[in-house]
Amino acid sequence: MAKQEDIFKNVVSHAKEYGFIFPSSEVYDGLSAVYDYAQNGVELKKNIREYWWKSMVQMNENIVGLDAAILMHPTTWKASGHVDAFNDPLIDNKDSKKRYRADVLVEDYAEKIHQKAQKEIDKAKARFGDAFNEQEFITTNARVIEYLAKEKEIRERLGRSLGAGDLDDVKALIEELEIADPETGSKNWTDVKQFNLMFGTKLGASAENAMDLYLRPETAQGIFVNFLNVQKSGRMKVPFGIAQTGKAFRNEIVARQFIFRMREFEQMEMQFFVRPGEEMKWYEHWKETRLKWHLSLGLGKENYRYHDHEKLAHYANAAADIEFNFPFGFKELEGIHSRTDFDLKAHEEYSGRKLQYFDPELNENYVPYVVETSVGLDRMFLAVFATSLKEETLEDGSTRTVLQLPAVLAPTKAAVLPLVKKDGLPEVSRKIIEDLKWDFNVAYDEKDAVGRRYRRQDALGTPFCITVDHQTLEDETVTIRHRDTMKQDRVKIAELRGIIENEVSMKNWLMKM
After folding, report:
1. Residue 286's pLDDT is what?
2. What percent of the chain is predicted at pLDDT more than 70?
3. Once rounded to an integer, what is the mean pLDDT over residues 254-272?
4. Which of 20, 86, 206, 455 is most buried (CB neighbours < 10 A)?
5. What is the pLDDT of residue 1?
6. Residue 81 belongs to a domain
7. Residue 224 is labelled as binding a ligand
8. 361 is in an annotated binding site
9. Is 338 one of the annotated binding-site residues?
């Protein structure tokens, strides 16, 4: 645990030191659970967003984009259920005065049991090697069976209790499991209470006549209320999807873990409209497709897993998370939900307007069912950043800090370094920059010895360093250094564009799906 905490502290520290993420309003001592993306962070975030958008919209003929407003008519949130049901179950510790999400306390406890089972599996795998049959071991080893059964029992009970709104049983479960305050070890808990997460605001010139509004807690509703507008203007045929990225806001009382859980965050969502009765086929399709997208980035298959929901939201008939192994354990990265026709029917009821599709093949009108994919952009940033940050011991015994970002996402694709700041080398370097910047985000760096510049670019995640030296003046060749291997090649200046493009092209990366 201590090691994981140290890793996470290094992630937070590195993000600030190298210009990726700053605490918001830091000159005023910051604002809890609100962060600013700095000069390198904004580039990495943009690249993740574009990687998602290209795969979701550009590569699918039947998916189009939308950018709905953050402020929506307040009845939107009554229809969606957010006014009445968008709550977190919170519990306070009487001794530490700390507040926690009750469901997260139980889920973290269940995850520890799962990790005990995984530890037994990993030990057996190491002992038996290639002869190891993991599935057989899971179904026959008494200790693993006991751990997994206990985990399942806890998760199912939590799901039933939350689904029934039985907060007393949630507290009883916490007490039966003897779950303690993570910081102090105290088990002196208050009752569990629900807390609504929406931020309220006002619309109007005067307080007397102002309309009560909410900052949107999710981007999905902007898609649903525009369903018919998009379908008709785009002549879309079911099945089709509407994708959107944008800010959402939640008054998280127990926001924590850096940018994992924030009060202002960004979502990348796609709502896929299908014929009633075909939703489960598309639900399975998008579960598989979205995992392939994540795996295309090369962050390690072992870092992902599915988690099927025991407790379903009021609008869903199936739901699963793609969980990622963050420095603090497996947590939700993306949700795939079969939302049925709940949202469109609710907006029909509250607006008094039909939101139906005429299916020419069936010759009938119906309210489509919806399959949703929703990934947190900030969580995606954290998954990529934390997994890529590494401390390496080199052959000579020295160490280096390297941010091995997928090259397609790296904020800067190449840094051009003149060996010395004289003899015409800076001028040649600038000429290379002028040529490459039309296609790539490139940087110029002439400060310090070239070795220190290499280390600086390694820590920034730059895939290539291009060194201009005196030989360049003679034969128009440069040294190109690869971040991950530190291998250096002598190449023609004219070849640089092709070399970089081959490594950073979204096409090449997405074709791994």
Report:
1. 98
2. 99
3. 90
4. 20
5. 44
6. no
7. no
8. no
9. no
